[in-house]
Structure formats: structure tokens, C-alpha cells
What does this fold into?
Amino acid sequence: MKHRLDPWALVLAGGDGSRLQSLTQNNEGVSVPKQFCSLQGGPSLLAAALNRAGAIAPRDRLCAIVAGQHRQWWADGTLDDLPDSNIFVQPSNRGTAHGVLLPLVKIAARDPNAIVVLLPADHYFRNEATIAASLSRATVLAAENSDAIHLLGVEPDAADSELGYILPSPNARCRSRRIVRFVEKPKVAQARRLIELGALWNVFIIAASVRTLLSLYSPSFDATIAAMRDAEGAELDELYRSLPEIDFSRDILEGNEAKLRVLTVPRCGWSDLGTIDRIALMVRYFEEERAVLGRSPDAPNMTPPRGSLMGEYIRRHSRAEEPLSFSHPPALIFGPNLWTHEAKLP
It folds into this structure.
């Protein structure tokens, strides 16, 4: 079935960013979820994600799922360009499965034939042009084959044991390939082997019809889906209090591999910015780039400002007695349009 190429984009912005809490505490001791922080000054990660999503979806189809307890940060104007009906507020965190399900149910009620692209709010892409092209391709594929669910998988830079991997089928002629299996946080040796077999990093970007996405949820979710259609305010609060915490990747995607396809994204300087170590690695890239460009460490306007993730990391570690340590430091490669790295594996 053919669909008009006018997709919905849903930015997933309800996470708590708990792994970075020690880095994102404000002056009152409150940890700001990382999607509301900037990486090195400038727009927040959420604002950057909305801009990324806006490259493939019109304003009236650009949506975000946020958490009620984060209102002080998302109500600061970041979402002002979105229609009020496109801001979905979950009363509490009940896992990514419900965080995805609520907006899907609401979108399906308005547009049963919708093509939807899901994007995280707190990731970083050095090369936005590369990810934009891949998002566009995934949207086209989802429109051409509305029975399949298309995930983006980034070509790995290194054997990273803290990331999730997608192992695709070996058929290199397909624009998107079937998925053999998911592997979450493998040991380094296993990650190396997976990369040798053609595995890709799972960046949790998905394009599919809303019908097919909802079909991933087993019949045990039918009552929840029915309740979510019309629930608002206190009724939605009560519904969420009864929901268990369920993970979308582990509990929904895994086991549905027959419906899934993966589209390869060339290296694009991606990071999920999920841990202190990843922020440290971004600081290292920053310092290396500055050295490659021949700029003095004391050059003005080059240090990420306080309040940014990189700026806070630098500030809090500037007096450390020991040098920064990296488990598997990569050899850095810089080009005119790409900031990425290659790992020299033993």
C-alpha cells in the first residue's frame, strides 16, 4: 500500500538521564535530565533532536513525548514551535515501551495510516547531513513497505561493550536487510566478532507505519491501548499508576525480528552521551580537534561553557591529579565534514 510521503516524527524525551546525574546537578542540587542540557553550549540536545526531526516532518506532524515531572525544563520555550496537541505528557516513567505506546495510540487516532519516525532526544551526531539522508531513506522505505519496521544501524567506530548491536543478514544487495538478532552490551571480544560479521550500532531510530508499530505489542496490551485512547489528566495519571515498567527494545522489539529491517548508516560521529566516560571521550575529541586546527588551548570562545555537559566535565576534572583515562582510546580521524574515530583493535 502506498502512502503519501508526509511522515510524523516523534522525539522521545521522557528519560531521566540517571547515569549523568552527577554531572548535571544545578546550583540547587537538582539533576537536570541530559536532553535539556547542551553538549558544548548552544541549543539543548532536545532542541537539536527537534531540528533533526523537522528535516523529515512538517510542523503539524512534529511531536514529542515528555515527562510531567520535567515540566520546568520542557516548558521553557523549547517546545513552543510544536502544536499543543503534539506534546504528549506521561505522568510518570513506566519504561520505554509505554513511553512509545502512548504517543503512537494518540497519533493513530488522528491518522490511522501514519508513517512514524521515532528519534531519541538526547543523542549527538557530528555529521547531521549523513543522519538526515538516512532518515529520509528510512521514511521512503517505510512508506513503500508499511508492513516492515525499519531501524537505523550506524557503522561502528570501535568494539564498544556498552552499546547495543544489530546483526543484519549478509545480503548486501538489499537497501535494508533483515535482522538476525540483537545483542545488548556484549563483552569486548564478542563486540569485535560482531563487527567482523557486519553488526551495526543500534541508535534507536525507527521508521514504520503506526499500525505496524502497534502490532508489535502483544494482546496483553489491548486494555492499555484502549484506555490510552481517551485518557487525559487524572484518568491518565491513574492508568499510569497501574502500569508495570517495560522496556521497548528488550520486551517489544526482541522476538519480532521477522518484522524488522535495518538500514546501514555510514559513520557519522554518533554518541548516545549515555555515561560520564562518553562525555570524557567527547572532551578528548574536542581537544584533539582544537589541536588539529592549530588553536591555542587559551584561544577565546573555545572552552565549552559552564552548564554544558562538556563544560561541566572539564570544570569538575580540571583539578584532578590523575590524567583522564579511557578504556579503549581510539585513534582519531578528522576531515572537513566528519568528526569520527577508528579503533585500532589488537
In short: Residues 276-342 form one domain.
